[in-house]
Amino acid sequence: FANGFYAEPFVQLAALRIGSFDYGLTNGMRADGEAYESLQGRIGATIGYNHTLENGSTFQPYLRLAVAQEFADNNKLKINTVQFNNAFDGTRGEVGAGFAYKLNDAVQIHADVDFSAGKDVDRNWGGNFGLSYKF
Predict the structure, then answer these.
(1) What's the CA gap between 96 and 47, in Å, rounded?
(2) pTM of this prediction?
(3) Contacts of 95 (CB under 8 A, 6+ apart)
Protein backbone atom coordinates (compact mmCIF):
# COMPACT_ATOMS: atom_id res chain seq x y z
CA PHE A 1 0.00 0.00 0.00
CA ALA A 2 1.01 3.63 -0.16
CA ASN A 3 2.62 5.65 2.62
CA GLY A 4 4.15 2.71 4.49
CA PHE A 5 0.99 0.65 5.08
CA TYR A 6 1.09 -3.06 4.27
CA ALA A 7 -1.05 -6.21 4.41
CA GLU A 8 0.42 -9.72 4.60
CA PRO A 9 -2.10 -12.54 4.12
CA PHE A 10 -1.14 -15.98 5.43
CA VAL A 11 -2.35 -19.58 5.31
CA GLN A 12 -1.06 -22.27 7.68
CA LEU A 13 -1.65 -26.00 8.00
CA ALA A 14 -0.14 -27.80 11.00
CA ALA A 15 -0.30 -31.47 12.00
CA LEU A 16 0.70 -33.14 15.27
CA ARG A 17 0.67 -36.72 16.53
CA ILE A 18 1.66 -37.73 20.05
CA GLY A 19 1.90 -41.42 20.88
CA SER A 20 -0.46 -43.24 23.22
CA PHE A 21 0.25 -43.59 26.93
CA ASP A 22 -0.65 -45.80 29.88
CA TYR A 23 0.08 -44.59 33.41
CA GLY A 24 -0.60 -46.20 36.75
CA LEU A 25 -0.36 -44.55 40.17
CA THR A 26 0.49 -46.22 43.46
CA ASN A 27 -3.07 -45.53 44.70
CA GLY A 28 -4.52 -47.69 41.91
CA MET A 29 -5.66 -44.92 39.57
CA ARG A 30 -4.99 -45.44 35.87
CA ALA A 31 -4.80 -43.08 32.92
CA ASP A 32 -4.86 -44.45 29.39
CA GLY A 33 -4.74 -42.27 26.32
CA GLU A 34 -4.94 -43.09 22.67
CA ALA A 35 -2.55 -41.31 20.34
CA TYR A 36 -3.38 -37.59 20.31
CA GLU A 37 -3.78 -36.12 16.84
CA SER A 38 -4.28 -32.57 15.67
CA LEU A 39 -4.80 -31.12 12.21
CA GLN A 40 -5.22 -27.39 12.28
CA GLY A 41 -5.65 -24.80 9.55
CA ARG A 42 -5.37 -21.02 9.88
CA ILE A 43 -6.04 -18.19 7.49
CA GLY A 44 -5.62 -14.53 8.23
CA ALA A 45 -3.75 -11.32 7.61
CA THR A 46 -1.32 -9.00 9.30
CA ILE A 47 -1.96 -5.32 8.65
CA GLY A 48 0.64 -2.78 9.66
CA TYR A 49 2.59 0.35 9.07
CA ASN A 50 6.32 0.91 8.47
CA HIS A 51 7.46 4.16 10.01
CA THR A 52 11.04 5.40 9.69
CA LEU A 53 12.03 7.68 12.55
CA GLU A 54 14.31 10.70 12.27
CA ASN A 55 17.26 8.74 13.69
CA GLY A 56 16.90 6.11 10.92
CA SER A 57 15.37 3.41 13.10
CA THR A 58 12.17 1.69 11.98
CA PHE A 59 8.99 1.28 14.03
CA GLN A 60 6.39 -1.19 12.74
CA PRO A 61 3.07 -1.51 14.61
CA TYR A 62 0.68 -4.20 13.36
CA LEU A 63 -2.68 -5.90 13.86
CA ARG A 64 -3.19 -9.61 13.12
CA LEU A 65 -6.57 -11.22 12.50
CA ALA A 66 -7.12 -14.91 11.78
CA VAL A 67 -9.63 -17.74 11.76
CA ALA A 68 -8.40 -21.19 12.83
CA GLN A 69 -10.07 -24.58 12.43
CA GLU A 70 -9.15 -27.75 14.34
CA PHE A 71 -10.21 -30.75 12.26
CA ALA A 72 -9.27 -33.64 14.60
CA ASP A 73 -12.31 -34.55 16.69
CA ASN A 74 -11.68 -37.91 18.33
CA ASN A 75 -8.90 -37.90 20.94
CA LYS A 76 -9.90 -40.35 23.66
CA LEU A 77 -8.60 -40.36 27.22
CA LYS A 78 -9.63 -42.82 29.94
CA ILE A 79 -9.16 -42.16 33.66
CA ASN A 80 -9.97 -45.34 35.60
CA THR A 81 -13.29 -46.36 34.01
CA VAL A 82 -14.41 -42.92 32.78
CA GLN A 83 -13.74 -42.09 29.14
CA PHE A 84 -13.36 -38.53 27.82
CA ASN A 85 -13.09 -37.10 24.34
CA ASN A 86 -10.13 -34.75 24.70
CA ALA A 87 -10.70 -33.03 21.34
CA PHE A 88 -10.69 -29.31 20.67
CA ASP A 89 -12.29 -29.43 17.23
CA GLY A 90 -14.09 -26.43 15.84
CA THR A 91 -13.48 -22.90 14.72
CA ARG A 92 -11.97 -20.04 16.66
CA GLY A 93 -11.15 -16.43 15.99
CA GLU A 94 -7.76 -14.94 16.79
CA VAL A 95 -6.74 -11.31 17.20
CA GLY A 96 -3.36 -9.87 18.06
CA ALA A 97 -1.46 -6.62 18.03
CA GLY A 98 2.17 -5.77 18.40
CA PHE A 99 5.19 -3.96 17.11
CA ALA A 100 8.70 -4.46 15.84
CA TYR A 101 11.31 -1.78 16.45
CA LYS A 102 14.54 -1.95 14.46
CA LEU A 103 16.95 0.19 16.43
CA ASN A 104 19.82 -0.35 13.96
CA ASP A 105 21.13 -3.04 11.61
CA ALA A 106 22.05 -5.26 14.57
CA VAL A 107 19.32 -4.77 17.20
CA GLN A 108 15.58 -5.34 16.90
CA ILE A 109 12.91 -5.49 19.62
CA HIS A 110 9.46 -6.97 19.16
CA ALA A 111 6.41 -7.48 21.36
CA ASP A 112 2.84 -8.62 20.85
CA VAL A 113 -0.33 -9.59 22.67
CA ASP A 114 -3.01 -11.95 21.38
CA PHE A 115 -6.34 -13.50 22.25
CA SER A 116 -8.43 -16.32 20.78
CA ALA A 117 -11.92 -17.64 21.39
CA GLY A 118 -14.04 -20.35 19.83
CA LYS A 119 -16.23 -23.40 20.33
CA ASP A 120 -14.03 -25.44 22.70
CA VAL A 121 -11.03 -23.15 23.14
CA ASP A 122 -10.82 -19.78 24.84
CA ARG A 123 -7.32 -18.51 25.42
CA ASN A 124 -7.08 -15.41 27.51
CA TRP A 125 -4.58 -12.76 26.63
CA GLY A 126 -1.06 -13.94 26.00
CA GLY A 127 2.04 -12.07 25.04
CA ASN A 128 5.54 -12.28 23.67
CA PHE A 129 8.57 -10.07 23.94
CA GLY A 130 11.83 -10.54 22.13
CA LEU A 131 15.19 -9.01 21.43
CA SER A 132 17.22 -9.90 18.36
CA TYR A 133 20.91 -9.14 17.97
CA LYS A 134 22.74 -9.87 14.70
CA PHE A 135 26.50 -10.25 14.84
Answers:
(1) 11
(2) 0.75
(3) 63, 64, 65, 66, 114, 115, 116
pLDDT tens, N- to C-terminus, the chain (135 residues): 778 999 999 999 999 998 888 888 889 888 888 888 889 999 999 999 999 999 989 999 999 999 999 998 877 888 888 888 777 788 999 999 999 999 998 999 999 999 999 877 777 899 999 999 999
Instruction: Catalogue all structural domains in the chain, each as residue range(s) with its CATH number.
Output: 2-133 (2.40.128.130)
Q: Which candidate, 54, 120, 48, 109, places its Cα nearest to that of 85?
A: 120
Backbone dihedral angles phi then psi of residue 2, each to the nearest 5 degrees: -80, 160
d(CA 65, CA 98): 12
